[in-house]
Write a structure and sequence with these properties.
single chain, about 210 residues, alpha+beta, Jelly Rolls, three-stranded antiparallel sheet, 13 strands, globular
């Protein structure tokens, strides 16, 4: 009986993510259609589809206007540095074809702007780490990024085909080239970057499909 009680207690702890070095108050977001859920710290800003603008205040927005939900790291924690913003978001990917399939979901089609098709794919599949297991589900792992006017963004994205729908999870971070100012801006310390990466990873890995 003691062994069973201990296992139950351990299972309870495993369901509660720990953000940063100490336990942090969290909330669970569940999508309106009950398709998925994840856990995030309550002091992080969260925006949902149709109301994403308040979460896109960085020079290069870290939230896509079509995302289902986007959670933003509190930028005030890194004031007086070149940090721009960081986010975790969930997006549903659609296709112009008749039906979404697993192969279509996993294909990085070149983005299209008007009548022009980019010569680059939408993302690159990570050669070093092409698959990520999140909540017991295998996700394709891709990377993307860009730069403009001394600002840059890096994106790690994860795609999975679930119940005939293509879901994309992504973790984004933006920043400013530190030498554009005089004196140069401070960059995140290794400890600050680890804290940021850990928090975003914990949100990502708390993601679960509801069934």
């Amino acid at each position: 009986m003691r062994a069973i009680a201990a296992l139950i207690l351990m299972a309870g702890f495993l369901l509660i993510p720990v953000f940063g070095q100490t336990a942090q108050k969290t909330s669970t977001f569940t999508s309106s259609d009950n398709a998925f859920r994840f856990v995030y710290p309550i002091d992080f800003q969260i925006c949902t589809r149709g109301k994403v603008e308040p979460c896109s205040e960085s020079y290069i927005p870290v939230c896509d206007k079509d995302s289902l939900v986007c959670v933003v790291y509190p930028a005030k924690q890194f004031e007086d540095t070149n940090f721009g913003g960081a986010s975790f978001q969930v997006t549903e990917i659609f296709t112009q074809q008749e039906m979404m399939t697993a192969d279509v979901c996993a294909t990085p089609y070149p983005p299209k702007q008007g009548d022009t098709v980019s010569s680059w794919p939408g993302f690159l599949i990570s050669a070093e780490h092409p698959v990520e297991v999140i909540g017991g589900v295998q996700f394709l792992h891709g990377v993307s990024g860009g730069a403009a006017m001394s600002h840059s963004i890096s994106i790690d994205l994860y795609r999975a085909f679930h119940k005939q729908r293509c879901f994309e999870l992504s973790v984004s971070q933006t920043g400013t080239e530190p030498n554009v100012s005089d004196p140069p801006m401070k960059t995140l310390t290794p400890a600050q970057q680890r804290r940021l990466d850990q928090s975003m990873s914990q949100i990502l890995h708390s993601f679960r499909f509801s069934d």
